[in-house]
Structures are given as structure tokens and as C-alpha cells.
Amino acid sequence: MKLLVTGGAGYIGSHTVLELLQAGHEVVVLDNLCNSSLESLRRVQAIAGRSLLFVEGDIRNRTLLDQLFAQHQIDAVVHFAGLKAVGESVRKPLDYYASNMAGTLTLCQAMADAEVFRLVFSSSATVYGDPARVPASEESPVTNPSSPYGRSKLMVEQLLQDLQCSDARWSIGILRYFNPVGAHSSGLIGEDPLGLPNNLLPYLSQVAIGKLDCLQVYGNDYPTPDGTCVRDYIHVVDLALGHLRALQFISSRRGCEVWNLGAGKGYSVLQVISAFEQASGRTVRYVFGPRRAGDIAANWAEPSKAACELGWKAERSLANMMADTWRWQSMNPQGYR
Length: 337
Ligand code: NAD
Ligand code: UFG
Description:
With 337 residues, this protein is of the alpha/beta class. The protein has a domain at 2-181 and 233-262: Rossmann fold, CATH 3.40.50. Helix content is 41%, strand content 17%. It has helices spanning 11-22, 38-48, 62-71, 86-91, 93-114, 148-166, 200-208, 236-252, 269-280, 304-310, 318-331, and strands at 2-6, 26-31, 53-56, 76-79, 118-124, 171-177, 179-181, 215-218, 230-231, 233-235, 255-261, 267-268, 286-289. The strands form 4 sheets. It has a 7-stranded parallel β-sheet with strand order 3-2-1-4-5-6-11, sandwiched between helices. The chain is globular, with a radius of gyration of 19 Å. The chain starts with a strand and ends in a 6-residue tail after the last helix. The mean pLDDT is 97. Uridine-5'-diphosphate-4-deoxy-4-fluoro-alpha-D-galactose (UFG) binds next to helix 7 and strand 8.
């Protein structure tokens, strides 16, 4: 297939583009590079031994999208582009609704006009808010995400459901990611946050490499076995492979389906630190701090819908996720720079 991958230079996008190229697909990446560097795609092409077409631009640029769809016979769109920092979304809601919500709207309008009706969309477990029951299944309520970021994802999910209801030619896969971590086993591509990392694994690995002094564990008084928050960590390569399965599925039938992409198993922050120390052979300095606003005690996925319908499940263990994170961090102490 010929695929348009928006946000393909980013963390999850670059790993997915690699798997798509290795599976023989043709790839056009559209990315404005606001949170990524072209170096990721240079390395993706080197690993795959195949090239892709890169277009620098914004998903809100309708003229550019129309040109892209006119120039290329696109079979499906894999849509990663968007902003993703929960805390920043509270301070800059307009940016988040503009990029995530209005951006997806513009993309869908351009797709409809170009008669490209297959779309895989990056949603998030954040749409479950603080779930009344874990594991969260696709049927769990999604009424109360705790940030503008989460609400932008939920609005897009609703937009896509409405779109498919209005026109049966659409075939849409909504993927709710849990906590993507890890890196490609080559150590050549990985997560490269700009500035101070927000997320656990990039922070942890920058402490281990000596770039940051000490990890703050946000809260040890949660109602969990060791008092720290529990999350469902999923290896980014497993996640990338989930997109290939979703593409296969939406190419064979119409509709709008939602799938959780998680491992179906929760680990606490302390368990992650311990697994990382084992994988890296380094001691990670940490202190307990107050809870982070908006954090929930625990969430992990009920992943059986993806297993049944997509034939997909996460294969890579926590030890594997930690080893691959450490390989990427130690081979690239300055990320792609
Ligand atoms: P990322 O920031 O590494 O990748 C996003 C990419 O989109 C970047 O390359 C960025 O430059 C590009 N981009 C952003 N806004 C754009 C725009 N308006 N036009 C064109 N390009 C634009 O993030 P990621 O971790 O790879 O996440 C990819 C997707 O998955 C996002 O939609 C994110 O919300 C979603 N997601 C991520 C996580 C996570 O923890 N990483 C969890 C759940 C969902
Ligand atoms: N944590 C720390 N110290 C840190 C960073 C994180 O203790 O420096 C803790 C958090 O409190 C949380 C856990 O580590 O308990 C994981 O935190 P992350 O920030 O890595 O991930 P979140 O679960 O908060 O959020 C992630 C993505 C969101 C996505 C959500 C649900 O960042 O975009 O998973 O999929 F919406």
C-alpha cells in the first residue's frame, strides 16, 4: 500500500514507519518537525535499506494536503501528528485543540475530497480518565479525560465515529495506546524529548546516563501494592506492529473500530525503576515527591479485543523495554543532536 503517515518523524511514528517500510509499503511522511528531527527518518531509511518521501508541513495546511493527495495515490493515512504533553495542554489549550482537533478535521476534509477513506488514528488511554474499574476495556466509560489533551483525543474519536456514521465508505481504526516506552533494538531510533522530559522512562534514563541528577517519584501513598502509580507499559515496536495489523483490518472491511493497545499488565513506578536498574547495571537516584496533579493511581489495558480482531498482542517484556531504552540512551546521550 501507499501510506501517508502524519507525524512520522516522531517517536511512535518513526518506529511505525520503519515497520511499514520493512513490510514493503510505500511511505510518504508529513511532519512539521515541531517535536522531532529529520535525523530519525534518515536512520529509519538506513535500517530499512529503503527510502521514503518526506514532506515538511502542517496537517492544518489544507492546500498542502490537497497537493499531497493529488500527487500520490494514497491508500490509507496513519495519523500520529499532534501535541502530546498533558501538562502543557492545561497551559495552552488552544494549541492542543488547534493541532489535535482542528488538524484532524482538516486532514479528514482533505481525505474525503480526495476519496481516501482509510484512517488509523493515535488515541490514548487518557480518554478513560480515572477508570472506575481496571483493566480498562474499549467498553469502559470515556466521559471524563482529565486534561485538554485527553479531551482533544476524545473529541477526535467522536468526530471519527460521526464521520463513519455519515458515510459508510470510511474505514477507521482508533488505537488507544497505553504507555509506550522502549526503542528499536538497533539502538538507532528512540524517544528524544526536547528539554526536560515529562514522562517516566526518558527522565529515568537521563538520570542513569548522568544528564539529570535525580528522579522524583510522584507520590508513594496511592492505593497500589507499593504506593506508587501503576501503568501498562508497552514496547514501542509492539505498538508499531499494532498499526500494521490495524491497517490490514481496516483494508478488509468498513466501519469504525476502537482497540486498546496495551500489554494488559500493570507495573508500579518502583518496579519500573528496579527493572531499569537491572537492565542498565546502573543505580538510579530517586526521591519520593508529592503526587503530580492529574495522575491516576492505576490503569492498564484489557487487550483482548485487539487479540481477537487484529491477531495482535504485545510480545516484548518489561526487561526488554528497559534494555532497549538503555541501549538507545547510552548510544545517543544527546538524542538525535
Ligand atoms: P511525538 O511528538 O514524538 O510525534 C508527533 C509528531 O507529530 C512529531 O514529529 C511532531 O513534529 C509532529 N506534529 C505535531 N503537530 C503537527 C502538526 N500540526 N502538523 C504536522 N506534524 C505535527 O509524539 P509520539 O509520542 O510519537 O506520539 C504520536 C501520537 O501518539 C500523538 O498523536 C500522541 O498524542 C499519541 N499518543 C502518544 C502517547 C505517548 O505516551 N507517547 C500515548 C498515547 C497517545
Ligand atoms: N512519574 C514519576 N516521575 C517522573 C515522571 C513520571 O514518578 O518524573 C510517574 C507518574 O506519576 C506516573 C508514571 O510515572 O505514575 C508514568 O508517568 P508518565 O508521565 O510516563 O505517563 P502517564 O501515565 O502520566 O501518561 C502517558 C502519556 C500520556 C497518555 C497516558 C495514557 O504521557 O500522553 O500515558 O496512555 F495519555
